[in-house]
C-alpha cells in the first residue's frame, strides 16, 4: 500500500485499486496527459501483452503470502485484487486464506476496465467520495494485491486536472486504511515482468522475470536481519548526504524520524506499531525514513525516467528549506510530466518526502542501466509529496519518485552506500 496514488485516481475503480496503493511509482506519479488535450472519445481496449508463465511455484507463493507476509488469522477478512492474467495466483491466495478460516474477497480487474472507468465516466463524478472504499476500510483486516498492469501508457490523453481531482477525492480512503492498521501486501513493486519494463531496464524478458521471482522468493529471514542492521544505523544518525555523478547533491536531516523496513513479513512488532509498519512490498528489501521538516537542501537529478511511456531526461529538482523550489528536465515526456505536476493545486506536493535504501541482494539491474528501481542492494530513491507509506504525515495524493542508481550516501560523514554498493 504505497506509491501508487495517481494510478488509483486514474483507474477510479476506487476500492479495487485504492486499498493497495499509497506511494507513487515514477510511472504513476508522473503519468498524465499533455497540458492541453482534446476531449477523448470513449476508450477502446488498450493493446495488451500476454504474460509468460511465472517460473515459480504459485501455490507455494500463495501460502507464503497468506501465512508469512500477511499473517492472516482465523476470522479475518482479506481483500485480494489483481488482473485477470494472474488468475491462478489470485485464486490460490483466496484458497489459502479460506484454509485458515478467514474469508477472502477476490476482485479482478483489467487494463481495459481501468481505462474505461476513467475515460468513459463523466467528469462530474471525479470529485465523488469513494464510499465503498471507506466502508471496506471498516471491515477488511488485510489486503493482498498484484500490481500487474501490462500497458505502460494506459492513460495516454488523460486530463491532468481530472486526475488531480480524483486523487483529492480518494485521499480519505488511503488515510482510513492507514488509520485502521490494515495489513497490506503488494506484489509487483515496479518490477513486474513485462516486455516494456524489460526493455526499459536493458534486460531480456526472461532475465527480468527471473530477477523478479528470485526477489520475491528470497528468504525473508535474511532480509529481516539485514533490514534491522540498516534501520539501526539510520535511526541513530542525523544527516544524510546523497551525491551522484549526474549532479545530485542533497543534504537532509533524519534524526528522530521513524525508520521502517519492508522485509517481506508483517511481524508481531509491525502489527503492534501499526500504520505504515504493516505494509509489505514484494520483491521486498527496503529501509526508508522521512525527513525532519524543512531540512532538505540541494539538488536531485534523475538521469532518466518515463512518463506514460515517454522518456524524460535529467529531471532536476532544487530543494530549499525542505521544499522543491524549481523543476527542470528534457525529453519527449517532460512537458506532460510538468503539466500533471502543475495541475495538483496543493502545496504539500513540493515537500521533500522520503529517503529509501534498497537492500535485496537477489534483485540486480544491468550495470549500465540509467533507470533505477526500489529494492536492489545499494539502490537509492528519494521523493516529494505523499510519504504516509514511509511513516510520514503528508497524505497529499501526489508524489514524484526519483531513482538515483550509482549514488553515494553518507550518514554523518560515514559511507553507507558508495557508488551504488551497500556498505553496511
UniProtKB/TrEMBL annotation:
List, alphabetically, the InterPro entries matched. M29_Exopeptidase, M29_N-terminal, Peptidase_M29
Required cofactor names: Mg(2+); Co(2+); Zn(2+)
Q: Name one Pfam family in it.
A: Peptidase_M29
Any one GO molecular-function label of the UniProt entry: aminopeptidase activity
Gene3D superfamilies linked = Thermophilic metalloprotease (M29)
Enumerate the UniProt keywords alphabetically.
Answer: Aminopeptidase, Hydrolase, Metal-binding, Metalloprotease, Protease, Signal
Disordered as annotated region, ranges: 27-55
**Where is this chain compositionally biased, Low complexity type?**
27-36
Keyword field contains Flavoprotein: no
Signal peptide region: 1-19
Indicate yes or no for the key word Repeat. no
As for family, the record states: Belongs to the peptidase M29 family.
Name of the featured protein = Leucyl aminopeptidase (Aminopeptidase T)
Source organism per UniProt: Pseudoxanthomonas sacheonensis
